[in-house]
Design a protein that fits this description.
The structure holds three protein chains of three kinds. Chain A is α+β, with helices and mostly antiparallel strands. Helix content of chain A is 12%, strand content 21%. Chain C is of the alpha/beta class. Chain C has helices spanning 7-17, 32-43, 57-69, 80-85, 87-95, 120-124, 138-152, 182-188, 215-244, 270-283, 301-308, 332-338, 360-371; strands at 2-6, 22-25, 50-53, 74-78, 101-106, 131-134, 161-166, 174-178, 205-206, 252-255, 262-266, 288-293, 295-297, 313-318, 345-350, 377-378. The radius of gyration of chain C is 20 Å and the shape is globular. Chain C starts with a strand and ends in an 8-residue tail after the last strand. The chains are: A alpha+beta, B alpha/beta, C alpha/beta. Chains in contact: A-B, A-C, B-C. Strand 2 of chain B pairs parallel with strand 9 (205-206) of chain C, so a sheet runs across the interface.
Chain lengths: 85, 297, 386
């Protein structure tokens, strides 16, 4: 790939870096408890929490397992579990 | 109103888990929307978000140097103005770049009154280079260049009042916020970019690595800072205080104890006179900004 | 049509004719008359540009980066201490590949403080990735601004350039100068077309950081671009010559070099004095010549080697001092390097620092020193005050 003049690049390549590989603990959501308040979505520094059709989804390609979502969940619906790799 | 559902800060960036500044990058762009040009200073956020060729920024973004973002932004704004372009110009710079090395360029830009919004992500030390003290480091925090020791209680100097310095420049809108309150951050960013003239927003972005707490507690720590009065969220327009976040204030001890940078204040036993000095800072903040919820309210 | 004009005002006219959208500068002697004149032009509506009065040279050039990155042609000017204060930005501009043109009214560097002329300021930033043009007289330095923008903005170049001229000696001197018309310059210099720019409709990140996997390649590409800048300067200089009758296709200019026994190499206004001294020496049977360096970066090694071929002795006149170096001047070693493999002897003579006057008799004395093989020295020291 030719270097872009001035060390410039277009968006799109950040996702080459799969930060999910850093993870030790993995978030798991209990949808029975979840109230769909969206706090976990807005709190995530990795933009890796989303909601679709009433389900909270974690993008494990990028989730670093920091646990902010679990810590902030007012319904205590998210737990961090040790991931087996 | 901008569409706050847009995600303009990409995943795959290299910030530490639970990074406060990474939260801000994302929230900030929800506040600005797509019609923006971002000017970054050298620092943690610049480095974790743009190792060539993997940029996390889905909006136009430029980095030149550590100290000159406000001047670069001035130049961008001048060019946009000359060509009747509509993009908002936003600086995103750390506290070292803002409180210390960037003062000259910031002062010039605010004096000239460019239509820019300067956002400082304040994690209270030079984190990118390894947690050295800056003008934003709070009193008694232990950093690698203000270490606590037998003859030191850590940083011996008070945190510089940067917002007041920019108020003195005649900034049209000066506000503080915290990533602990994401909706407030987005609202203030949106307000700043839609306020003509130079605006300043200083956002508390707890740093688990630099402050010494678990990455899951970033927001919790941010809330504790506000609840004890060591961080105040407020808004000023043309130097006049318009609003501040009210709290039922708790003693500073809990906030301090939760972070390794203040550990020396409690071990082997509490240094009560130093803790009292920090409590006095919180009390002074509370009085100055009127944050205490009165019992009869 | 020739007009009698102060050098600084001629430079301001040239800058105006290039239609910069943003002008950002901080006042410093002897650059001030340029930016004062530009401010007047903006105030009078003669120049439709944003004129930013900034807090420092650091901000002046940083503003230029922002405007240039947003797609505007920009202009700045500085001198001496100002150039040093912006040094970090100077390197940054080149790495970010912004085709900014900046005038340098050459002035000595402190300490001790001196407002007078030498070329220490721009020479000290020779490794920064900008091309360097040096003017001998007001006409040449004026014309070099048009050429600089044209070369800088070529998409196979995209590098910034200094147009350097001796402070006071040229900046504050009135000379007859032909200022082209706006129509003529518009025909020579088309509007700036950025290679890429900050634009919300097509977002890119500029000035990212490079890991060891990429850094060297970026530096290599900048060097390659600077080499190509040489060709672009030459081509622009040739085209300018065809349009205006003043040809600047050469990076060097030879004066009475036929059968020369000793050749001077010099940059800037001193060349006028040297030419007069050569005429007198030639009249007295001393076969001296001059090779003037017009483009110092990229260094025109091949052109110099050709111009100096067969000359036994070369005396490089240095208005700079590379403190601690063997030859003392910064230009001499590069001239010597260009002549590697020949028997030509090259000597540096540090002259005229901090505004010390250089007379024709000094040039003649330096020729005699070179003939004797004595050089790499300060010339003209007042030993009585040492």
């Amino acid at each position: 790939m030719a270097l872009r003049i001035g060390c410039a690049a277009a968006p799109g390549r950040a996702q080459d870096n799969k930060t999910g590989s850093w993870r030790v603990f993995m978030p798991v959501v209990d949808m029975e408890k979840c109230i769909l308040c969206g706090t976990c979505i807005l709190s995530c520094p990795e933009t890796s929490v989303s909601e679709k059709d009433g389900q909270i989804l974690f993008d494990l390609d990028f989730c670093k397992g920091c646990g902010v979502c679990a810590n902030e969940c007012r319904a205590e619906a998210i737990t961090m579990i040790q991931e087996e790799k | 109103m901008v569409d706050k559902s847009l995600e303009l800060f990409d995943c795959g960036h290299r910030a530490c888990g639970g990074c406060g500044p990474a939260m801000l990058a994302r929230l900030m762009l929800k506040g600005t929307g797509e019609d923006v040009i971002v000017v970054a200073s050298t620092g943690c956020m610049e480095v974790f978000s743009t190792p060539y060729p993997e940029t996390a920024w889905k909006v136009p973004w430029i980095h030149s140097l550590f100290e000159n973002a406000a001047a670069v932004a001035s130049g961008v704004e001048a060019s946009l103005k000359h060509n009747n372009r509509t993009e908002k110009v936003v600086c995103i710079c750390g506290d070292g770049a803002t409180f210390d090395i960037g003062m000259l360029c910031i002062s010039g830009a605010f004096e000239r009154g460019h239509d820019i919004t300067y956002i400082c992500y304040d994690n209270e030390a030079y984190m990118n280079t390894g947690i050295q003290r800056s003008g934003a480091t709070p009193y008694d925090a232990s950093t690698t260049t203000s270490p606590a020791g037998k003859k030191s209680m850590g940083n011996s100097l008070p945190k510089k009042d940067m917002p007041q310095i920019l108020n003195a420049h005649g900034a049209s809108y000066v506000a503080t916020a915290s990533v602990a309150y994401p909706m407030d951050v987005m609202k203030k960013v949106e307000k700043a970019v839609n306020t003509p003239g130079a605006c300043y927003l200083q956002v508390h972005t707890p740093c688990s690595t630099g402050w010494g707490f678990d990455g899951s507690k970033t927001i919790e720590i941010g809330k504790q800072a506000i609840e004890c009065g060591l961080w105040v969220n407020y808004e000023m327009e043309y130097g006049e205080l318009k609003a501040s976040k009210k709290v039922r204030r708790v003693p500073v001890d809990g906030y301090l104890k939760a972070q390794k940078r203040f550990r020396h204040l409690f071990k082997p036993q509490p240094v009560t006179e130093e803790i009292a000095k920090i409590q006095a800072i919180a009390d002074a903040n509370a009085a100055k900004y009127g944050i205490d919820i009165q019992l009869n309210e | 049509m020739l007009q009698i004009m102060e050098g600084s005002h001629a430079v301001a006219e040239a800058a105006k004719l290039c239609r910069p959208e943003v002008v950002s500068a901080y006042p410093i002697t002897p650059q001030t008359h340029i930016v004062e004149r530009l401010a007047e032009m903006v105030a009078d509506g003669e120049l439709d540009a944003e004129y930013l009065c900034v807090d420092s040279e650091l901000s002046a050039l940083s503003v230029c980066i922002g405007s240039s990155a947003a797609g505007s042609r920009v202009y700045s000017a500085t001198s001496s201490q100002g150039l040093m204060l912006m040094a970090e930005v100077v390197f940054n501009v080149a790495g970010m590949r912004q085709p900014i043109v900046m005038s340098i009214a050459n002035r000595a560097l402190g300490a001790p403080l001196s407002i007078w002329n030498d070329q220490q300021d721009s020479i000290s930033l020779r490794d920064a990735g900008w091309f360097h043009l040096y003017g001998e007289d007001v006409q040449e330095m004026t014309d070099q601004h048009f050429i600089a923008y044209k070369a800088a903005e070529q998409h196979d170049v995209l590098l910034p350039g200094f147009v350097c001229f001796d402070g006071f000696i040229l900046s504050h001197t009135y000379e007859p100068v032909d200022i082209p018309s706006q129509e003529e310059i518009d025909a020579f210099l088309p509007p700036y077309v950025p290679y890429n720019k900050l634009d919300a409709k097509a977002p890119i990140s500029m000035g990212m950081y490079a890991t060891p996997d990429y850094y060297m390649e970026f530096r290599y590409e900048t060097d390659q671009a600077l080499q190509r800048a040489g060709d672009a300067i030459s081509a622009a200089g040739k085209e300018f010559g065809e349009m205006f009758g003043r040809d600047y296709s050469g990076h060097t200019e030879s004066y009475r070099m036929d059968d020369a026994d000793v050749a001077f190499v010099a940059l800037g206004s001193i060349c006028g004095t040297v030419k007069d001294a050569i005429d007198e020496m030639r009249a007295d049977g001393i076969k001296a010549g001059l090779v003037k360096i017009r483009t110092f970066r990229p260094f025109p090694a091949a052109e110099l080697a050709k111009a100096l071929a067969g000359v036994p002795k070369v005396a490089v006149l240095e208005k700079n001092i590379s403190l601690g170096s063997a030859m003392k001047g910064a230009v001499g070693p590069e001239v010597k390097d260009a002549l590697t493999g020949t028997a030509i002897e090259v000597y540096s003579y540090v002259i005229g620092l901090g505004g010390r006057d250089i007379r024709k008799k000094d040039i003649r004395a330096i020729a005699a020193l070179a003939e004797k093989g004595v050089g790499n020295m300060f010339y003209g020291l007042r030993t009585e005050v040492l």
